[in-house]
Design goal:
Helix content: 10-25%
Distance between the termini: 55 Å
Largest sheet: 4 strands, antiparallel
Strand order of the largest sheet: 1-2-7-6
Shape: elongated
CATH class of the domain at 34-78 and 91-129: Mainly Beta
Order of helices and strands: HHEEEEEEE
Radius of gyration: 22 Å
Number of helices: 2
Strand content: 25-35%
CATH topology of the domain at 34-78 and 91-129: Immunoglobulin-like
CATH architecture of the domain at 34-78 and 91-129: Sandwich
Number of strands: 7
Length: 144
């Protein structure tokens, strides 16, 4: 398995991203509010996924696993006082978010657990032991 690095948009694309967001506010406010960065690694018998969700109430985050795909979705509060400020720079995204990640192994989603600590959501998902192929001996039945 190879490491896939997450890299957000570079500054030169900031104006293009802002223009796109202004043209399609319904898309920007719904599914594409922001995408949390994740780290995924393997521990002995588990696949572990960590997501940086600093400042987000864990009660407003939903984690689900279906067909070996992990989905994290939720919402960060958008306070009304934020609109009244004269920003020099506004990079913190608020609103709804969604992230789905295909897991690298068969997992038992029913036994998964999730905890938050210091703004990091850590999800541990037990791997399912894969069954080894079974050799079946062919018997030759002779006609008499």
């Amino acid at each position: 398995m190879s490491l896939i690095r997450w890299s957000p948009f570079f500054e030169p694309f900031e104006e293009m991203e802002k223009a796109f967001g202004d043209m399609t506010p319904s898309i920007r406010n719904n599914q594409f509010g922001f995408v949390p960065a994740v780290d995924m690694y393997e521990e002995k018998d588990n696949v572990v996924v960590e997501a940086n969700l600093a400042g987000i109430d864990p009660e407003k985050v939903n984690v689900s696993i279906e067909n070996d795909v992990l989905c994290i979705k939720g919402e960060s509060e958008k306070k009304s006082e934020v609109d009244d400020k004269n920003y020099y720079r506004k990079e913190i995204r608020r609103g709804s978010f969604y992230r789905s990640v295909t897991l690298p192994a068969k997992v038992d989603g029913d036994r998964a657990n999730a905890v938050t600590e210091d703004g990091v959501l850590k999800i541990s998902i037990p791997k399912i032991k894969e069954s080894k192929p079974k050799q079946i001996k062919i018997k030759n039945k002779k006609n008499k």
